[in-house]
Write a structure and sequence with these properties.
Elements (H helix, E strand, L loop, with lengths): L1 E5 L8 H12 L6 H10 L2 H7 L6 H11 L2 E9 L2 H14 L4 E6 L4 H4 L6 E4 L2 H9 L3 E5 L9 E3 L5 H4 L1
Length: about 160
């Protein structure tokens, strides 16, 4: 059974879309890394998750994947604060009781938290996938426009059942 790690932001839930709009509304330039980092660190994640939407039946698709018993499934998510960890865990547990949730501090690569070798990472961010591939893992890009940027690409998580 292969290990399957699924990113949260931009794959399961549209938090990136929502928080980028918040940044724009506040007039914070996304290129100003210190201001952006401070924004995410102080964000009320429970409120954000209350207005976010699940992308393409992501939670139900994860249930299907887990039921198939083809993969050891875990949610691997970058976080900026303890408050974000708590909010994401509470949110995910409303839908998925038995999935492993691995929060990764934003300053650390996902490959420094997890042994990527022979494992699958589904992520929307190509840089995470490049690092994963360099560490011996298999990268799958989640993209609603189906632009793989050199990786296998999906726009529904249950497509993994046919890919592997």
């Amino acid at each position: 059974m292969k290990n399957l790690y699924i990113d949260f932001d931009g794959v399961i839930c549209n938090t990136i879309e929502v928080t980028y709009k918040m940044l724009d509304d506040l007039g914070i330039d996304k290129k100003e890394q210190d201001k952006v980092a401070e924004f995410y660190k102080n964000l009320d994640w429970e409120s954000v998750l209350n207005i976010c939407e699940i992308i393409n039946d992501g939670m139900d698709n994860i249930k299907k994947i887990m039921k198939s018993e083809k993969f050891n499934v875990a949610i691997l998510t970058h976080v900026s604060s303890i408050n974000e960890v708590v909010a994401k865990v509470k949110y995910i547990r409303k839908y998925l009781k038995d999935v492993t949730i691995i929060p990764v501090p934003k300053a650390i690569s996902k490959t420094n938290m997890i042994n990527a070798r022979f494992s699958i990472l589904v992520d929307d961010y190509p840089e995470n996938l490049n690092e994963w591939k360099e560490a011996g893992g298999i990268g799958v890009r989640f993209d609603l426009d189906m632009d793989g940027k050199g990786f296998l690409v999906i726009d529904h998580l249950d497509e993994l059942l046919n890919l592997f």
